[in-house]
Specification:
The complex is a heterodimer of chains A (313) and B (429).
Chain A lengths: L1 H4 L5 H46 L2 E2 L7 E2 L3 H7 L2 H32 L6 H14 L3 H10 L5 H8 L14 H11 L2 H13 L2 H9 L4 H29 L3 H7 L12 H11 L3 H29 L5
Antiparallel strand pairs in A: 1-2
Helix pairs in contact in A: 2-14, 3-14, 4-8, 4-9, 4-11, 4-13, 5-9, 6-12, 9-11, 11-14, 13-14
Chain B lengths: L1 H26 L8 E8 L2 H17 L3 E8 L1 H14 L5 E4 L1 H9 L19 H4 L3 E2 L2 E2 L1 E3 L2 E2 L1 E6 H6 L12 H15 L11 H10 L15 H17 L27 E5 L3 H7 L4 E4 L15 E2 L2 E4 L6 H13 L17 H8 L4 H15 L12 H16 L5 H19 L1
Parallel strand pairs in B: 1-2, 1-3
Antiparallel strand pairs in B: 3-12, 4-5, 6-12, 7-11, 8-9, 8-10
Helix pairs in contact in B: 1-3, 9-15, 10-13, 14-15
């Protein structure tokens, strides 16, 4: 029966099909190249500045006069620049607080929504929405006024007799305001978690219930391991995104990184050096420092992942 | 998030390149016999921009071959945009500048030396003020007018408190603190709430102490003790309610209506006196213009009459003659003051000032009288702001925030100022 339904292909047909396949593939090649053009152009726009910035990182370049090669001077200056260290510290503190909280919030809400809530589509969209607009100028401005001295947050606290701090202008609180803005945008990670949760076969849970596993035990032994690739994915993206934070800080502080450098993100400091201080050589060096640091973080992430990420295949 | 922030960044970059294109298009015309379009960049609000545009229209009436387009924005985004345009090689032909930035732009060679231009008549201009548009012997700028800083008080609140304003020729900083505390006790309105780190205020305070903020060779002239004393004074005033509490003045940059003064949150403010009319028209004529305290308590008075802003011309301008002619018009032609009046200060051409002063409204009159009275007194010469002064301003903003939220004592802030500002001036010099 098997031989009847799938007869061996006659040699001739293969020989005949060969030229026609070549013809088709030539046409396809051309089409592919045509469709690749935008990507190639796009890559040029990425690769050329990439290469130029690497060169500029070793020069003294003020945008107006020709660049002058200075060797490792910019990197030596970076190591001795207290403000760059402040910027690195602000960025790391933000990342190490905002990313875990965002992930926990995203996972928590995803778990709740995965319990078969009525109107799931609505809630999913509602929670996802902030992540689309969270970095927009209008939202950051709105955030500023919500957390301002006379803002809604302090108005609310005042009802309970609490005198809230000045969230936006007190250097001890300004970064907290930006962290809440970041956490508010947990929806992107949540949608991915939700999709991941849907992939876990129900039968594992059924089997575990039969064996008397508590919901907590089920979460730890089934959900977490099977969700770990998704968690890893969100962690990597979250880390890279947080380390590159720019727009929120720029709008929030009007480009100054204030109050008192408390929102001076590394990317913002880099921008200040390049476009406010006209020190494009140093700014390029900072960009490469950031690139290398992000690469290292990501590499560490991948190395460590072999110990906790479980691929069920 | 990566994507979003990148998109936001690209959107910002897009805006900038559109601006660059506009500037590029307007510069593209050929020799001076053909029609020329100049671009002027200024910070303004919508009302001010309209007044400037009216002056430019008058200029085009007199010089039909030269069209002028104004690009205006709020002061916060001005310098970023200007720097980007310079970097792109498409700067505006004529632009606003302030003294503390002049040195930095001049050393980069992006500003035109106007002294050689045959389009500008310098002989009519006040030589003392012109000096402040110079840097290392070259005339990189022409003052838009002259002004001095001033205290404005809301007389309605002073009257509500049952008080009378002290004599502003002789009042001390202690009198000022006491007076504002009395206003607070009587009305709940904080008597004072000026922008603490503002360079002109600190310059004047320093001069009253017999020091100059900057020396003639571009180093720090002020002592750490003076800066400490200044911050201590504000801290003490906050303790009595005389000065607005920490964080409450953050929205100072918005419109006058929404500002702490406009909302009756504070009763006084320090402003460039040329903007008096803008404040008083919103405040229903309740404001009066007064001198800063402390002029008679120290070794010398601190007041200076300074350029309000500066007109500069880009070295890269393709129409240098026309651009210089525009600056000359804006300085030496009384018709150029018809709409803007004294918004940019008292004209630095005495004849023009005389002519303009006949048609002034009440607020502008009060400003001109205030400034002219100061000009007639014997004031110690004003020291130029060196390259790096802009960074010194940034340092003061940071330190005053640290003191405001008690993360630093005034003592520490004074010491930090000396080391940070000293280093900034050294780097720039």
């Amino acid at each position: 029966m098997a031989t009847l339904t799938a007869p061996p292909r006659p040699r001739t047909s293969a020989a005949l099909s060969e030229p026609s396949r070549r013809r088709r593939s030539a046409g396809q090649d051309n089409a592919a190249y045509v469709m690749l053009i935008p990507w190639v152009i796009g890559m040029l726009f990425t690769l050329i500045p990439f290469g130029v910035s690497l060169y500029l990182a070793f020069t003294d370049y003020n945008l107006l006069q020709p660049a002058e090669f200075v060797g490792w001077d910019n990197f030596v200056a970076f190591v001795n620049d207290p403000k760059a260290m402040t910027a690195a510290e602000v960025t790391l503190r933000y990342t190490f607080i905002a990313v875990p909280i965002s992930l926990v919030a995203a996972l928590g809400v995803a778990l709740l929504l995965n319990r078969g809530v009525r109107g799931l589509k609505f809630y999913r969209s509602a929670f996802y929405l902030p992540s689309l607009i969270g970095a927009s100028v209008a939202i950051v401005m709105l955030w500023r006024s919500i957390f301002g001295f006379d803002g809604i947050v302090n108005g609310f606290l005042a009802r309970f007799g609490i005198e809230g701090p000045s969230w936006t202008s007190d250097p001890s609180w300004a970064l907290v305001t930006l962290i809440t803005l970041s956490v508010w945008g947990f929806g992107a990670a949540m949608v991915i978690f939700l999709a991941g949760l849907r992939q876990i076969p129900r039968m594992y849970y059924e089997a575990a219930s039969v064996d008397g596993a508590t919901p907590v035990r089920q979460f730890v032994s089934i959900t977490l391991p099977l969700l770990s690739p998704v968690l890893f994915f969100n962690l990597v993206l979250g880390l890279i995104g947080s380390l590159q934070t720019f727009t929120q800080a720029y709008v929030f502080s009007g480009g100054t990184g204030g109050p008192a450098d408390s929102t001076l993100f590394f990317n913002l400091y880099l921008y200040q050096q390049g476009f406010q201080q006209f020190d494009m050589g140093y700014a390029s060096a900072l960009a490469w420092v950031m690139f290398v640091v992000i690469a290292i973080f990501t590499a560490i992430n991948f190395l460590v992942s072999t110990y906790w990420v479980f691929y069920n295949d | 998030m990566t994507q979003l922030s990148r998109r936001g960044f690209l959107a910002a970059a897009g805006t900038v390149s559109v601006g660059a294109l506009t500037a590029c298009g307007s510069n593209s015309s050929g020799s001076s016999s053909e029609a020329v379009e100049l671009t002027v960049m200024a910070w303004a609000d919508a009302g001010q921009a309209e007044r400037y545009e009216q002056e430019f229209a008058t200029f085009t009436e007199k010089n039909p071959e030269i069209a002028v387009s104004l690009e205006w924005m709020d002061v916060g985004s001005y310098q970023d945009k200007l720097n980007t345009l310079f970097a792109a090689g498409d700067p505006p032909d004529v632009m606003f500048m302030v003294g503390r930035w002049l040195g930095e732009y001049a050393t980069r060679g992006v500003l035109a030396d106007l002294s050689a231009s045959d389009q500008l008549d310098f002989s009519t201009m006040n030589s003392g003020l012109l000096l402040q548009g110079q840097y290392q012997g070259a005339q990189y700028a022409v003052p838009t007018g002259s002004t001095a800083i001033a205290m404005i008080y809301n007389t309605r609140i002073v009257a509500d408190a049952g008080l009378e304003l002290p004599d502003d020729r002789t009042w001390t900083w202690a009198d000022y603190a006491e007076f504002n505390a009395q206003i607070y006790d009587a009305t709940g309105v904080h008597g004072a709430g000026f922008y603490v780190p503002w360079l002109p205020t600190i310059t004047q305070y320093t001069r009253q102490h017999g020091q100059d903020l900057f020396t003639t060779d571009g180093t720090l002239g002020v002592s750490g003790e003076t800066i400490t004393e200044y911050f201590q004074m504000i801290t003490d005033m906050r303790a009595t309610g005389a000065f607005a509490p920490p964080g409450s003045l953050e929205d100072n940059g918005t419109s006058v209506e929404q500002s702490p003064l406009g909302r009756d949150f504070i009763a006084s403010q320090i402003i460039p006196s040329n903007t008096f009319g803008d404040y008083n028209s919103v405040m229903g004529g309740d404001l009066v213009l007064r001198r800063l305290p402390g002029e008679t308590e120290g070794p010398r008075p601190g007041y200076t009459v300074t350029p309000t802003l500066l007109w500069c011309q880009a070295e890269a301008s393709e129409h240098p003659a026309e651009a210089a002619r525009l600056i000359d018009f804006l300085t030496n032609d009384p018709d150029s003051f018809a709409a803007r009046s004294t918004l940019l200060g008292v004209p630095i051409n005495a004849d023009v000032a005389e002519e303009v002063s006949t048609g002034l409204d009440e607020d502008a009159h009060e400003f001109v009288d205030f400034t002219v009275a100061l000009q007639e007194e014997e004031l110690a010469p004003y020291e130029m702001e060196p390259a790096g002064a802009g960074e010194v301003q940034n340092i003061l903003v940071s330190l005053s925030t640290e003191v405001e939220f008690e993360r630093m004592t005034p003592q520490q802030a004074g010491e930090e100022f000396m080391s940070q500002a000293g280093a900034a001036l050294e780097d720039a010099g």
